[in-house]
Amino acid sequence: MEEEYDIKEDIDIGPDSTIIGVIEPDYPGGDAIVVSVSIFKERKGVDIRRFYYGKDERYHPTQKGVRVGVEDAGHLAELIKKAE
Q: Which domains does the chain possess?
């Protein structure tokens, strides 16, 4: 039986970050969207960022993304739900 592929193993993310979820690319080698939680400058935050697939066959972060404090994450989630 073939093992299921876990994209999280191929994502380069900082050592103090935890991946919460991944929107996988629509096609092989496409960009992924990664949601993670980390502490930066002593503040816990949620990062939603686009990752590109590199020649080394791993995903790397781009500058395209947003980081919000955890205190604002719930409000952001409510706004996103309104877009549905």
A: 7-82 (2.30.31.10)
According to DSSP, residue 27 is labeled S
pLDDT per residue, tens digit, the chain (84 aa), is 556 667 888 888 888 899 999 999 888 889 999 999 999 888 999 999 999 999 999 999 999 999 999 999 999 999 999 988
d(CA 18, CA 1): 29
Please list the residues that pair with 11 across neighbouring strands. Answer: 59
